Amino acid sequence: MTIQNSLAQPAEPGSTRGSAEKLKVFIYRYGLLAVLVLMILFFSWQQPFFRTFANAMFILQAASVVAVIGLGATVSMTVGGFDLSVGASMSLAVMAATAAMVIGDLGGAPAILIAVAAGVAVGLFNTFLIVYARIPDLVATLSGLFLINGLTLLGVSGQSIAEGMSFNGNVAPGKFSPLFGWLGGGRLFGIPASVVVAGLIFIVVIVLLNYTRWGRAFYAVGGNPIAAAAAGIRVARYRMAAYLISGALAAIAGVMLAARSNRGDVNVGDAYLLQAVSAALVGYAVLGANKANAVGTLVGAVFVATLINGLTMFNFPYYAQSFVQGVLLVVALLMSYTLGPRRR
């Protein structure tokens, strides 16, 4: 029996079966939020520094990068796809932005535009494979992941980019611009600039998905592309738009990360692929949405950042943190798929 049926035909008040169904519905809708609150209370109790404003900003700053790249993955999921190349897009954007400033001696604004253009180019490539070559999303974006990683390594001969580096036998002439540095270390009304940027992007994505025709079309395409096409929705165009947005947001996340670290490391985005996927899938279990959604992804990003921050304070080995994230993902999926309404 599904939760929807149980809600339509409530059990006898006070019965054991009725209480079990209510508990099931509560866990399905609010279980992840309850775990997040309990986790914050536990870490605050055990580690006094955890509950400070400075640490809260540190958590939000870490969550901002995951949230932006996760929101891109979320948009691709709304059309029934899954962009596995977001980590590679992020790495490409990091290297493109830092190379433009340090090696090309360009300013911060051109470097950001070049990085975003690189992300959009990845989106176009994915669109070609998925929409026009008709390769399944996962296979297409997985191949894109390897291709883009290889291209990034070839572009800089596998070396990292930093001020004063040697390139082709000469010292690179450029430096990181103040505008670029502000994105990584600047503040606006006491809030880190990266958090402000992530907040603005979150608002844009939530408005796009929930309050526009484009958002409704995205979900329609993801729910049933044949029915969507029969209703007059241009499926190919919306799938293309979703992957372009995914690539662009991955690139912006790369810019935010490079601005914070003031260097460009090859394959730096690989670690963020797992976190972005975790945030987007964990979001399924938030408030019983049972679908890709911006609010859930934001909660998932904060959840992952809070968990990593707390584990780090407990000197939890870094090599075990992936295992803990895996456990979290399994629990969230159990809440969404096992306790949630059955899918036909």
From TrEMBL:
Tell me where the transmembrane regions lie: 27-45, 57-78, 84-104, 111-132, 138-156, 188-211, 240-259, 271-287, 294-312, 318-339
Swiss-Prot/TrEMBL keywords: Cell inner membrane, Cell membrane, Membrane, Plasmid, Transmembrane, Transmembrane helix, Transport
InterPro entries to which the protein is assigned, alphabetical: ABC_transp_permease (IPR001851)
Where does the record say this protein resides?
Cell membrane
Q: Name one GO cellular component term.
A: plasma membrane
Q: Which coarse location class applies to the principal site listed for this UniProt protein?
A: membrane
Q: What is the membrane topology noted in the UniProt record heading this document?
A: Multi-pass membrane protein
Question: Domain of life here?
Answer: Bacteria
| GO function terms (MF aspect) | transmembrane transporter activity
Q: Tell me what this protein is called.
A: ABC transporter permease
